[in-house]
Every structure is written in structure tokens, then in C-alpha cells.
Design goal:
With 90 residues, this protein is mainly alpha-helical. It has four helices and no strands. The chain has helices at 10-23, 27-37, 48-56, 66-89.
Length: 90
């Protein structure tokens, strides 16, 4: 098992210490339990970057302009693939 040193705000460290004393377990046990309780990171969907790019574009009017986004989709997809290709060749 590896060791990891972290800095915590005093209030959080005190809460962990209190729970460890109450339950008679180590602070490390408390932190491991909490970290294990967090759901695993979701695998990025291939379209997640594309949707994020669309969301970064300013929205005109009270709602999203779906027709404009649909027209821009091929442009956004090309840009994403070009960015990924450039990163892999670096």
C-alpha cells in the first residue's frame, strides 16, 4: 500500500479525526472509505467534447438555436479530431 500526504482544512481534519476516534478506526480507514464511496469517474463519451464545444458558443435568444448547432456539427467534429490528432503526434 502506498502513502499519500495531503493537506486538509482544519475543520475537515477534525471531522475525520472525531469519526476515527468514535469508530475506533484509523483516519486512513475513514479517508479510504470515503474515497471508495465516490462513484468511479465516468468514461468520457466520444461526443462529450463536441457537446461541450457547442455549449461554449454564445446562445442567441432565450433558447439554444438547435438548427445553428446542427449546421456547425461537422465543423466542430473536424476541429475535435484535428486537436486529438495533434496531441497524439506531439
Amino acid at each position: 500500500m502506498k502513502t499519500l500526504t495531503i493537506r486538509l482544512p482544519d475543520t475537515l481534519a477534525e471531522r475525520i479525526e472525531q469519526e476515527a476516534q468514535t469508530r475506533r478506526v484509523s483516519k486512513s480507514d475513514i479517508v479510504r472509505e470515503r474515497l471508495n464511496a465516490v462513484p468511479p469517474a465516468r468514461q468520457d463519451h466520444p461526443l462529450a467534447d463536441l457537446l461541450a464545444e457547442m455549449d461554449r458558443q454564445p446562445v442567441t435568444g432565450p433558447k439554444r438555436n438547435a438548427a445553428r448547432d446542427k449546421k456547425r456539427l461537422p465543423e466542430i467534429i473536424r476541429a475535435q479530431y484535428q486537436n486529438r490528432a495533434a496531441k497524439h503526434h506531439s
